[in-house]
Amino acid sequence: MIGKPFGDLVVQRPVQRMRGGQLETRWRCICKCNKPVTVSTENLENGSMTSCFDCRDPQKRAARVEHDSEFQNFKYLGIKKKGGLEEGFDNQFQFSKKHGLSQASVSRCLLGRQKTHKGWTFRKIEEPDNGADTNDDKSEPS
Ligand SMILES: [Zn+2]
Q: What CA–CA distance (Å, rounded) separates 65 from 109?
């Protein structure tokens, strides 16, 4: 299973967890856009997951990139559910200290291992696509 491609996904390693008293195996895959995504064996084999959610839904991603553009000088975005406060930051340690959070938990949220921490959610700032258009200095084939 490991190293096997399913659409845009390549299987990296198994992820096991207990669910309802049963051990469930899912697969940590990496998408062609380098985003990790965890998929069940069933969803891989029946072809219902062939990319990460952003590649599957590019419009959603585009909207997020546009939203993130105001934070583009930062690496990470913290969102406080209550009040909808959004704050960009680079340094997890400083950010955690400022808001009385646990840096380990912030880090786990950023890695996708934890969903929320003290009412905050965290994610990496989406970078705009470096499309083919960025190359102004076109060298014409002679
Ligand atoms: Zn993707």
A: 19
Domain ranges (residues) in the chain = 5-56, 59-124
pLDDT tens, position by position, 6-55: 999 999 999 998 888 999 999 999 999 999 999 999 999 999 999 998 89
Residue 2 CA to ligand 1 center (angstroms) comes to 18
CATH number of 59-124: 1.10.10.10
- pTM of the predicted protein model: 0.64
How many angstroms is it from 38 CA to the middle of ligand 1?
12
Residue 66 CA, ligand 1 centroid: distance in Å:
17
Cα–Cα distance for residue pair 86/79, rounded to 1 Å: 5
